[in-house]
Design goal:
With 209 residues, this protein is α+β, with helices and mostly antiparallel strands. It has five helices and nine strands, in the order ββαββαββαββααβ. It has one domain.
Length: 209
């Protein structure tokens, strides 16, 4: 089992997106979205804004069950509920157009985030997944997964089958939380300011998917 860990700066409901039919990661964390394979585990530890008291609490985790292009994600009817007109915390806002991707207006990311988001090339779908929230369980040191030598970027580690079974048992042993995000908690990062570029140039980017 390969495990990707990172620190989640803001758990605003869009990265990852917890809306049905299952958890998805379509924006932010482009390196994880490029590198993670089906069957890998992705796990997020709490950042300072999420839980200032305990940096080793697990906010969410999930096993990659699907890895799809942005075009497929947009066209798939299963994920229509994750679009801006259907969700308070959307992540499905890059529409295929003219061989590229067109940013769709939303309250999560402005057009200046297009290159960063679509640079991940893929959208990940997770099943099963574990949502614990800001006060999630404290990761035991015995698993060797705590991010102690620097908290920026991502880490990738491997666990044997017996180690993974113990970790899964630990994840399953803690209660999962229901989504209780306020409507105002939309952006997964603070807006840096409006883009001054013209819409067509900023919104379009050739897809590598």
């Amino acid at each position: 089992m390969r495990i990707h860990t990172y620190v989640i700066a803001t758990d605003a409901g869009s990265a990852p997106n917890y809306d049905p039919p299952f958890v998805t990661l379509a924006v932010c964390k482009p390196r994880i979205r490029r590198k993670a394979s089906i069957g890998d585990l992705v796990m997020a530890f709490a950042g300072k804004q999420v839980n200032p008291m305990e940096p080793h609490s697990v906010v969410w985790a999930g096993i990659v069950a699907e890895k799809m292009s942005f075009a497929d994600y947009w066209r798939d009817r299963r994920f229509a509920g994750k679009k801006p007109d259907r969700s308070s915390h959307p992540d499905n806002f890059y529409r295929p157009a003219d061989g590229g991707l067109l940013w769709v207006e939303n309250d999560v990311h402005g057009p200046e985030s297009t290159n960063h988001d679509t640079g991940g090339q893929f959208v990940l779908g997770f099943s099963p997944s574990w949502k614990f929230g800001a006060n999630g369980p404290l990761m035991p040191t015995e698993f060797g997964l705590r991010m102690v030598n620097g908290r920026r970027g991502e880490r990738v580690s491997a666990q044997s089958e017996p180690e993974w079974k113990r970790l899964k048992s630990w994840l399953d042993g803690h209660p999962r939380t229901a989504s209780s995000l306020p409507p105002s908690a939309k952006r997964c990062s603070p807006r840096k300011g409006p883009s001054k570029a013209k819409a067509p140039e900023i919104q379009r980017r050739r897809s590598k998917c």
